[in-house]
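request received
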Amino acid sequence: GAGVSQSPRYKVAKRGQDVALRCDPISGHVSLFWYQQALGQGPEFLTYFQNEAQLDKSGLPSDRFFAERPEGSVSTLKIQRTQQEDSAVYLCASSLGTSGTGEQFFGPGTRLTVL
Amino acid sequence: AQSVTQLGSHVSVSEGALVLLRCNYSSSVPPYLFWYVQYPNQGLQLLLKYTTGATLVKGINGFEAEFKKSETSFHLTKPSAHMSDAAEYFCAVDGGSNYKLTFGKGTLLTVNP
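response:
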């Protein structure tokens, strides 16, 4: 069956460019998460959606980061005016329900390199 | 606040040897605890989780972990390492948010023939 997919898998941006990263969660999954994984580090929480509602965006590093999930399925993470410190792997995860005991299924990530 | 400490960024074992990956957590409330594995260029895959109930949790691929509240630990073990176990392993805690995972920095496991 289809898992979580992310596109593009790799993105190179010049400093100052805007980028958009896409996440296709598992069909029917209510919860969707974005994480940022810097080199040699564990994933760090960015934001959480329950259907189309963004319930927590406390992990977004700055107001240059924006995420949306307008129809409660596909989500896009947008980074404006990229900086070198934004270079990381961006992971998307989804889970079926809204309970913290549920498994989060992760996509392969988008590796963003800002030059 | 919640946090996770994984002792040892790199663990090397021989094939057939015991695997022990250490994880200590801090949480102000009873936590949910998770171990995830990440193979190169792949997403994280759940190995096992502790939510409530039995403190010894069995997962996939022969791994297990024991929740020890008094030691605030959730170490991951496997009796006999296989070459296919070589990967990065992450411990994570949900300290009451019911959705937000805090991950450790990871432990890279290498298995020598």
